[in-house]
């Protein structure tokens, strides 16, 4: 029922920029946080940034503070991740996700706790590659 769709990934050189988009549907969008996560090959999926659309509250992993900005357009049920000053270590598959509570708290195949939220509903991911 909950559906998250990412787009905007690509390949850039160090110092470049990308803007990722996440379109959410199938739940009360404004009521639940949306997070961005990165997973590099052979590594675990880790939280990057999150926003609560209902109030605009944001939270960032320390490694991206000052470089990445998460924002939302509530009229489009869309969350963005503006990524500037990209570094090779930013490379990975980027996923967006929303709170397990968006589905009434029902379990999901993968759940990850980040910034005080248990994320459970994931998109298919969009690849970001930063070359040196």
Number of strands: 12
Largest sheet descriptor: 8 strands, mixed
> What is the multimeric organization of the chains shown?
single chain
Number of helices: 0
What would the average pLDDT be, to the nearest integer?
95
Content of β-strand: over 45%
Beginning-to-end CA distance, first to last residue: 40 Å
Any idea what the radius of gyration is?
14 Å
Order of helices and strands: EEEEEEEEEEEE
Structural class: mainly beta
What shape does the CA trace take?
globular
Uncertain spans, ≥5 residues at pLDDT below 50? none
- Helical fraction equals under 10%
Protein described:
This protein has 132 residues and is mainly β. The strands form two sheets. Strands 2, 4, 5, 6, 9, 10, 11 and 12 form an eight-stranded mixed sheet that branches. Strands 1-3-8-7 form a four-stranded antiparallel sheet, with no helix packed on it. The chain is globular. The mean pLDDT is 95.
Using brief descriptors, characterize the structure shown.
single chain; mainly beta; eight-stranded mixed β-sheet; four-stranded antiparallel β-sheet; 52% strand
Concise synopsis of the structure shown:
The chain has strands spanning 3-7, 10-13, 18-25, 34-39, 46-52, 57-60, 68-73, 78-83, 92-99, 112-114, 117-122, 126-131. With 132 residues, it is an all-beta fold.
Layout of helices and strands, plus pairs?
Elements: E1 3-7, E2 10-13, E3 18-25, E4 34-39, E5 46-52, E6 57-60, E7 68-73, E8 78-83, E9 92-99, E10 112-114, E11 117-122, E12 126-131
Parallel strand pairs: 2-12
Antiparallel strand pairs: 1-3, 3-8, 4-5, 4-9, 5-6, 7-8, 9-11, 9-12, 10-11
